[in-house]
Design goal:
heterodimer; A: about 650 residues; 4 domains; 6-stranded antiparallel sheet; 4-stranded antiparallel sheet; 17 helices; about 65% helix; globular; B: about 150 residues; alpha+beta; OB fold (Dihydrolipoamide Acetyltransferase, E2P); 2 domains; 5-stranded mixed beta barrel; elongated; disordered C terminus
Chain lengths: ~650, ~150
């Protein structure tokens, strides 16, 4: 019964989305004003119905209800509970249900709490949100129904891809989805503002917390995804420029640009059309990402479904939404009046530079991701990887980081370089010193050298906006900016250090053999079988010493899952303050004088954890800024309410007189 | 210095366009040079890629061709598409499903000695994870290739 109830709730939610669209649109016309009252409640109920449908599906997975096709294909009764739950979104249908749920709840959240927008813009926004949701409901119900029954009921399920049986899966996709779909709110805001032509600082202030929220989730999701790929794949890399990674990076780049331009709009009433455009682009990138991943035209561990019908369905949705939004933009952008002006040397200009660079990196990533599809249409199969993406994007990212140090020091409207240049001497000296140190340590490749030179300077320079201020009085949003910018410097140091200083060794070792990897001495003490709930493994016992220090034990495994039957290397990591030792156990290999040997792949990666610590700092900075904005808004609302109350009291007194 | 009042929007649009077009041109140029082409053995034998150019080689691992070197980490094997053969050398941990008779995509460079040196091997994991280049192949060519190598 439960699957049918879930499906019913999904249909009902879709119907409500239709109602929300129609009521919202009609309420904007003269005759339909009466409908305005129902739009918000409908949006809220729609969100909760979608969430209830997702809960129903999760329950089917928890109970391993094998009469549901999706459960039978992707789950197994012997799987640990957490992977049964996480397995709900470890497949195409479930992940699309998660997508519409997040979208519905996002709309419900906006409907429930957003009070700053003028009512017509709000109605247009909620109608826009419903319009987008409707397409994805249609996709879910018509082309990827998660509740389809299976007959006859199989004896047990197929199980979940072992790569996905990892705690990372439990929260990595939901986090990213909140980010992706959170951008749909920015998209709907942009549509709403275009429809009612109300683009200004108030609009920007209303939109900013939503953008910030989505951006924080994207940042955390990308950081977590990168770490997950790093330790699960066992390849020692943390970013592969895999199309699916790019699909998450592109919305992040657009959202980062949007975040900065929305600040300009809020503070200075400039960059109006540009901000609206970015609002459209950011969610468009989320949808393109979904298209790339879900259509199956790209292959990777993320591409669940290879079904051309679904691909064309999503392609049609893309055309409708992105094309429609861009058309609306083209028709209305001319009527959005020009914002305030600013000088070439000003904070606005620095933020424009940041925006242009981010957009360029976005363009580069998009071109590189789509290029194989284009050439394949002409019969030429190619793949595009790090040799393209890394240097070309760095050419734009590194200048952007330099301007990022200058921008926050400049005044709004207009400033002179002479005023800020004495302050900038400090990060410049730090950069030259650390670049010199890296060169002395033997770093010769251009990008790692530049990265190592710039990273400490970025960290130092990012703190400069705090100089000469009483730290206790610095507003929380300035702290947020400083922390996020410092995070970028920290992450850059980790990235550059990984490519400059990593040491890799590949050996075939007998029991008792020792090898040296950088400062580490590693001994293979034993290899023995171990068993888990749904796998067996060969486990290597490595005794490791750092520079002659105390002995520590690491246990990399080579795991064999039986549902589905698949072997996977599970790496073992050892983290020190100055880096990570990364070990992988391979297969048994050619014996040496009768003694069996085991393949070991070992890396010493100095400072590599800084990459993810930096990413988390960036997200933390966003969190501080969000906290500050929300607190300001609540304060303003309270002041306004108090004012209204007093005015009311005064009016009453005057009437009574 | 302040921009002439009416032209600010125009200047901003121009700056953005110039930067984006510049990025696009740079990207196109870099893509030409850095994209890694996919070869099947017949193509690679007929038109070998220039030395030092990173490419990908896809085909079936010929039965009886896989040999482990004495160092315990290097493996040599032959990749075939039924029409031609290319010897491959790889040092590293092999993917779990990499066995003789299975499909493989090797990333690497063709050496001057005619041996393809792979940095990375992508084996056919399961029906949900197939290197894209091998999907067309597995239907028709692969069966032939396996039949030929038996």
């Amino acid at each position: 019964m439960l699957p049918e109830i879930g499906l019913g709730m999904l249909w009902l939610a879709a119907a409500l989305a239709g109602l929300q669209l129609i009521a919202g649109a009609l309420a904007l016309t003269e005759g339909g004003k009466g409908l305005a009252g129902i739009v918000r409640p409908v949006a809220i109920v729609q969100g909760f119905l979608a969430a209830a449908a997702l809960l129903a599906l999760i329950w089917c997975f928890v109970e391993t209800d094998l009469s549901v096709k999706l459960v039978a294909e992707n789950s197994h009764s012997a799987k640990p509970l957490i992977y049964k739950i996480a397995g709900t979104w470890g497949n195409h249908e479930g992940s699309m249900l998660l997508w519409v749920t997040v979208m519905g709840l996002g709309g419900a959240f906006v409907a429930a709490v957003e009070r700053r927008l003028p009512e017509p813009t709000m109605l247009a926004t909620l109608a826009g949100q419903a319009f987008v949701s409707l397409g994805f409901y249609a996709f879910l119900l018509l082309a990827s129904n998660p509740f389809t029954r299976l007959s006859p009921v199989p004896e047990d399920g197929n199980g979940l891809n072992p790569l996905l049986q990892d705690p990372g899966l439990a929260f990595h996709p939901p986090t990213l989805y909140v980010g992706y779909v959170g951008l749909s709110i920015a998209f709907s805001f942009a549509i709403g503002a275009l429809v009612t032509r109300q683009v200004g600082p108030d609009f920007a202030r209303a939109m900013r917390p939503w953008v910030l929220g989505a951006w924080i989730f994207l940042t955390v999701g990308i950081t977590a995804g990168s770490y997950w790929a790093y330790y699960v794949l066992g390849w020692g890399g943390w970013w592969f420029w895999d199309p699916v990674e790019n699909a998450s990076l592109m919305p992040w780049l657009a959202a980062t640009a949007l975040l900065h331009s929305v600040s300009v709009l809020a503070a200075r009433n400039a960059l109006r059309a540009w901000t609206v455009m970015l609002g459209v682009v950011a969610f468009s990138m989320s949808m393109i990402g979904t298209f790339l991943v879900r259509s199956g035209i790209l292959t990777s561990v993320h591409a669940f479904a290879v079904d051309p019908r679904r691909g064309s369905f999503i392609l049609a949705l893309l055309a409708i939404y992105i094309g429609g939004a861009l058309l609306l933009f083209a028709l209305r952008a001319g009527t959005v009046s020009e914002g305030e002006r600013f000088a070439v040397t000003s904070r606005e200009s620095a933020l424009v530079f940041n925006n242009v660079m981010l957009s360029s990196i976005l363009g580069i990533t998009l071109l590189g991701t789509l290029y194989p599809l284009v050439t394949e249409a002409f019969g030429q199969k190619v793949s595009v990887g790090p040799p393209y993406f890394t240097p070309v994007s760095a050419m734009f990212a590194l200048p952007m980081l330099l301007v990022m140090l200058v921008g926050p020091l400049l005044r709004w409207r207009g400033d002179t370089i002479g005023r800020v240049s004495p302050v900038l001497a400090l990060p410049l000296v730090v950069m030259l010193a650390s670049g010199g140190a890296a060169f002395a340590l033997g770093v010769r490749h251009a990008l790692p050298l530049l990265g190592l030179a710039m990273a400490p300077g970025v960290v130092v320079g990012s703190v400069l906006p705090l100089r000469g201020r009483s730290l206790r009085r610095v507003p929380l949003n300035v702290w947020g900016m400083v922390v996020a910018h410092v995070g970028l410097g920290v992450a850059l140091f980790g990235m550059a250090s990984d490519s400059a200083f990593s040491i890799e060794r590949l050996v075939a070792a007998k029991i008792g053999d020792s090898t040296q990897v950088g400062p580490w001495q590693i001994t293979l003490a034993n290899v023995a079988p171990v068993a888990g709930p749904n796998w067996t493994a060969m486990e290597g016992v490595l005794k490791v010493r750092y520079a002659g220090g105390a002995e520590q034990v690491m246990t990399p495994q080579s795991r064999t899952f039986w549902a589905p039957l698949q072997t996977n290397a599970v790496s073992a990591l050892l983290t020190r303050w100055n880096g990570q030792l990364y070990t992988v156990l391979g297969e048994e290999t050619a014996a040496d004088n009768g003694a069996p040997r085991w393949q070991l792949r070992l890396w010493w990666k100095p400072y590599v954890p800084l990459i993810w610590i930096g990413g988390l700092l960036v997200a933390l900075g966003g969190g501080l800024a969000l906290l500050s904005r929300v607190a300001q808004d609540l304060k303003r609302r309270k002041v306004r309410e108090k004012g209204d109350f007093r005015r009311g009291e005064v009016a009453k007194l005057e009437q009574g007189r | 210095m302040s921009l002439k009042a009416k032209h600010q929007r125009l200047v901003l649009i121009l700056v953005a366009l110039v930067a984006l077009i510049g990025a696009g041109l740079l990207a196109t140029w870099a893509l030409r040079n850095q994209a890694s082409y996919f070869y099947v053995p017949a193509d690679m034998v007929a038109h070998p890629p220039e030395a030092d150019r990173a490419v990908r080689l896809g085909g079936m691992v010929e039965r009886g061709s896989m040999k482990n070197a004495a160092d315990g980490v290097t493996v040599t094997f032959t990749v075939t598409d039924g029409k031609a053969k290319v010897p491959v050398r790889f040092a590293g941990i092999r993917p779990a499903l990499f066995v003789e008779g299975s499909g493989v995509v090797a990333e690497g460079k063709l050496g001057a000695d005619g041996i393809f040196v792979a940095d990375n091997l992508l084996a056919k994991h399961d029906e949900k994870y197939v290197p894209r280049e091998m999907k067309n192949m597995s239907a028709d060519d692969a069966r032939k290739a396996i039949a030929n190598t038996k």
